[in-house]
Amino acid sequence: MNAQALEAWAPRVLSILRIVAAVLFFEHGLQKLFGFPPRPEGAPGPEIVSLLGAAGVMEIIGGGLLILGLFTRPVAFLVAGEMAVGYWVAHAPKSLFPALNGGDAAILYCFIFLYIAFAGPGPWSLDARRSAL
């Protein structure tokens, strides 16, 4: 493939990145709040009024909005911040190294969503549809 063909597809691939990352993010919220997919053996669900409960709510609502591509920039910015806080509060105290502290996914989510906050939702989104009207 030549560079022009790749550049022509870049906005669509941005939409695909947004959707795939948001579906995975949404799944984390479902697991936190509803135990689906099942949590690891013995892992309790969070209290809804706790940092973990608030994270689950943000992951379900934010993930859902990002799947649809609705209010993408502000939502992506907020959940990027959630992932940064989550990393420093839950993972970094365990170890300096993300591969050891289990925080590598939080870092990736943080920077993917930060990129989407700046790049926008891509053409396959409700935001793009709303701006075309």
TrEMBL record:
<protein>
    <submittedName>
        <fullName>DoxX family protein</fullName>
    </submittedName>
</protein>
<keyword id="KW-0472">Membrane</keyword>
<dbReference type="Pfam" id="PF07681">
    <property type="entry name" value="DoxX"/>
</dbReference>
<feature type="transmembrane region" description="Helical">
    <location>
        <begin position="48"/>
        <end position="68"/>
    </location>
</feature>
<dbReference type="GO" id="GO:0005886">
    <property type="term" value="C:plasma membrane"/>
</dbReference>
<keyword id="KW-0812">Transmembrane</keyword>
<keyword id="KW-1003">Cell membrane</keyword>
<feature type="transmembrane region" description="Helical">
    <location>
        <begin position="75"/>
        <end position="93"/>
    </location>
</feature>
<feature type="transmembrane region" description="Helical">
    <location>
        <begin position="105"/>
        <end position="126"/>
    </location>
</feature>
<dbReference type="InterPro" id="IPR051907">
    <property type="entry name" value="DoxX-like_oxidoreductase"/>
</dbReference>
<keyword id="KW-1133">Transmembrane helix</keyword>
<dbReference type="InterPro" id="IPR032808">
    <property type="entry name" value="DoxX"/>
</dbReference>
<comment type="similarity">
    <text>Belongs to the DoxX family.</text>
</comment>
<feature type="transmembrane region" description="Helical">
    <location>
        <begin position="9"/>
        <end position="28"/>
    </location>
</feature>
